[in-house]
Amino acid sequence: MLFSEFFQKWLHETYYKNAVFVGRKGDFYTAVSVGELFGSLLAKHFLSLIDKKILTLPLQVVEIGANEGYLSCDFLSALVKFRPSIFEKLEFYIIEPHEKLQILQKQILQDVEFTHKKTLKDCHFTNAFIFCNELYDSFACELIDNDKMAFVKDFKLIFKPLTPALKKQCELLKLQKGEFSPYLSSFFEDLNAACERFVFAGFDYGGFLPQKFSLRIYQNHQLYDPFEVDLKAFFAKSDLTYNVNFTHLKYLIEKHHFKLLNFKKQSQALLEFGLESIIEQSENKEKLLSQAKYLFFNFDAKFHFFEFQKSPL
Length: 313
Hints:
alpha/beta; eight-stranded mixed sheet
């Protein structure tokens, strides 16, 4: 089978479907695992977009890939502190295809009125703020090695000639060796069709013009090379991930005529969101300072914040 099919079966048809935990109890950490500071900073940024009239009320607020729901919880809790009056002009949604994760999200957000949607294809948003954390790195990908691509047989990676269509796309992106996700293009098409207007804010790790494979396995916070281990032993029992191809991401933003608002290192973005003011105004400065140190020193330079906008014609 194609490697992308193997990836999809591993991650989305089994691993995520079984409602994996993120953080100390899981296989990997994200910025959300650190504590409420990350969601509070995103809420501060969201309010600044409203104050600058980049976003206009009323709004649909949407998280994609919420996992247990902690980012949405932290984001909404911060809005209660910063500007509670705004809630009367917001509708909240989570896009989540997996039933077990939907149950977890309802438990974490038990005091929040929100609507679950399974996919973007089920949605129609007139004016939305959409956010996600480490979403694109979960999209199934192909492994490209010059004029060859990966297939999986009996849990072994084998490389065969590229299909003509995929070869054309790789040439367009000047991709010779690395990961290519056909699902990224499909996502942008669905996003465009589902929304009349939006601001999309996301965090993910990646780089431009990849020259090597970044595919890796995380299990109990240990890193494994999928080219050196028995894939059958890890299949659906651990996280499979890779660096997002930001060249592809920016190409799709331009292709769909979206406006790029931000693209910068995650650490820089969090500073600009108002880190200093949130810590200064907190009644528990030491706790937030500890979280800030973790966010800045445990998430390296490949982590980025990207934000783009669709406006009506």
